[in-house]
Amino acid sequence: MTPDVHIRHAAPADRDALYHVCLLTGNSGKDGRELYADPEILGHRFAGPYLALEPDFAFVAEDSEGVAGYVLGAPDSAAFEARLERDWWPDLRERYPDPGDVDSDVRPRDPVIAHSFHHPPATDPGLLERYPAHLHIDLLPRLQGKGAGRGLMTTLLDALRAAGIPGVHLGVGAANTNAIGYYEHMGFHTVFESVNGRTMAMDLRTTG
């Protein structure tokens, strides 16, 4: 990792920066601003809950310009989903009414995200038996190629191992081929694949 990049635990004051990174990578790793009318809705779904509920497993990468990447994880996905239902989704359901069934290709995509607040997907229990943790990682272009992604991932994986977590999984869209290749290089393998994307996983007991 280049000397100008620093990795640290995320702090509550990083909230806006995390939301910004989430939006700027919200189109299969590319700028998602034109896909969402509400610039915060994507962050509410994929960044905010980790910062609020799992701060011990939330890390940021920053340079002289500020935070430009993050990795966010939950060591126990089932417990995390239960906490979301109790402590995170209720406020968002008040702010964003249930749009009902929506076309996944609708533009802007705000209704798709709002639908997920009211009908959050549950992780397959079979997957969680071996890979109970999950993570999200996003990095702005200015930090790519500087070792920041590997640094973030290694930091979180080490934290999960230290907590005794046996395995971790993540989801990646089918269009994000660069990310798929990167995850494979990091030691993840595909456990489920569809036309929309993949679920990839790593056994933390045998890799390091």
From TrEMBL:
One Pfam assignment: Acetyltransf_1
N-acetyltransferase domain residues: 5-205
Tagged with keyword Transferase: yes
CDD domains named in the record: NAT_SF (cd04301)
InterPro entries: Acyl_CoA_acyltransferase, Glycosyl_Hydrolase_84, GNAT_dom
PROSITE patterns: GNAT (PS51186)
GO molecular function, one term: acyltransferase activity, transferring groups other than amino-acyl groups
Keywords recorded for this protein, A-Z: Transferase
Protein name as annotated: GCN5-related protein N-acetyltransferase
Naturally occurring in which organism (per UniProt): Beutenbergia cavernae (strain ATCC BAA-8 / DSM 12333 / CCUG 43141 / JCM 11478 / NBRC 16432 / NCIMB 13614 / HKI 0122)
